[in-house]
Amino acid sequence: MLFVSRQFAAASKRAFSTSSYQNAAKVAVLGAAGGIGQPLSLLLKANPTISHLSLYDLFNTPGVAADLSHINTPAKVTGHLPDNDGLKHALTDADIVVIPAGVPRKPGMSRDDLFNTNAGIVRDLATACAQYCPKAHILVIANPVNSTVPIVAEVFKKFNVFDPRRVFGVTTLDVVRASRFVSENQDSSPLDTKITVVGGHSGVTIIPVFSQTPGLQLNESDLKALTHRVQFGGDEVVKAKNGGGSATLSMAYAGARFTNSLLDATVNGVKGITEPTYVKSDVLAKDGVEYFSTQVELGPHGVEKINGLGELTAYEQELLQAAIPELKKNIQKGFDFVHKE
Ligand SMILES: NC(=O)C1=CN([C@@H]2O[C@H](COP(=O)(O)OP(=O)(O)OC[C@H]3O[C@@H](n4cnc5c(N)ncnc54)[C@H](O)[C@@H]3O)[C@@H](O)[C@H]2O)C=CC1
Ligand SMILES: O=C([O-])CC(=O)C(=O)O
């Protein structure tokens, strides 16, 4: 919870000096009753910048909202179901929409195996966002992120409301994991171990760039083992949960970190915040890759500046080359899904 308390300390300090920034944001969570949705909503309820937390799911959101609403932080919490225009009410005036709605993996599945179910869910929720909160920042957690982000973008384009500064694939869990795994290997503090991860959010498309962490020296076997662990960290949890789903608690932590960073940049006027995120990007335009995750500077309108790849070792170049065809395939699949009708 350290990032939470650090951020909230900063936010509450700012709240005294710049009152117009205080408690100003409505955040909607779609899929809020699920494994990620509930702990994510709990962490967001703790952020004093949020004035209204609206929770939408197919079931159980009135209960989750009632429960969270007893916590003595400023956010009003409302729960919405599909009946009575629930989605419309959940989304209207939202500044940020976080989407963990969708099915998780079971052992033996790839993230792409979720496409058939989750593509339609994300398309329909994106359609509602384009109608009811076209200026909101959309944070996509639902897998396969490499394809669901292009789906949101194509739906928004259909409604003429696409702004590439406001559609994000949440890849924060990859850097959270990388930091933890490397700190275990190096016996260092995970809070001070910053690892760059670029690419997408599945298997070989996740590219840790350990060479960019100052002072980090890995021998070849550690380098390969850690690379594999970061790329396939999600599988460890899927296997351990043994049919009970995938990462939920670590994902909620990562999703809250990203949402809180975006709130600080967009609502609290904090400058210079960077987070890795999968966005429409020119970084690999020459290779025909339209969406890519690198470190992104966040500003008042969302994406402020997309950082490049920086220097890569020969090994990291190899990882990048392996990721490119898979990423292009995943992106095309999302695009085709929206344009198939
Ligand atoms: N981006 C990332 O790093 C990560 C992404 N994920 C993905 O997040 C998604 C959610 O995972 P969990 O929360 O564990 O699943 P879950 O099954 O526990 O929860 C999903 C929730 O979405 C709801 N839902 C389904 N269709 C909906 C619709 N049309 N409208 C609103 N809500 C709807 C369900 O009712 C359920 O409550 C999965 O696709 C999973 O693969 C999971 C971990 C990390
Ligand atoms: O592995 C999964 O299916 C869920 C996920 O995206 C992750 O944990 O990184």
From TrEMBL:
InterPro entries: L-lactate/malate_DH, Lactate/malate_DH_C, Lactate/malate_DH_N, Lactate_DH/Glyco_Ohase_4_C, Malate_DH_AS, Malate_DH_type1, NAD(P)-bd_dom_sf. Gene3D superfamilies: Lactate dehydrogenase/glycoside hydrolase, family 4, C-terminal (3.90.110.10), NAD(P)-binding Rossmann-like Domain (3.40.50.720). GO terms for cellular component: cytoplasm. It comes from the Eukaryota. The keyword Oxidoreductase applies. Transmembrane segments: none annotated. Residues 26-169 form the Lactate/malate dehydrogenase N-terminal domain. Keywords: NAD, Oxidoreductase, Tricarboxylic acid cycle. NAD(+) binds at residues 31-37, 57, 118, 141-143, 251. The keyword Nucleus does not apply. Residues 171-338 form the Lactate/malate dehydrogenase C-terminal domain. One of its GO terms (biological process) is tricarboxylic acid cycle. One of its GO terms (molecular function) is L-malate dehydrogenase (NAD+) activity. It catalyses: (S)-malate + NAD(+) = oxaloacetate + NADH + H(+). Its EC number is 1.1.1.37. The active site is at 201 (proton acceptor). Homodimer. Belongs to the LDH/MDH superfamily. MDH type 1 family. PANTHER family: MALATE AND LACTATE DEHYDROGENASE (PTHR11540), MALATE DEHYDROGENASE, MITOCHONDRIAL (PTHR11540:SF16). This is Malate dehydrogenase. It comes from Dimargaris cristalligena.
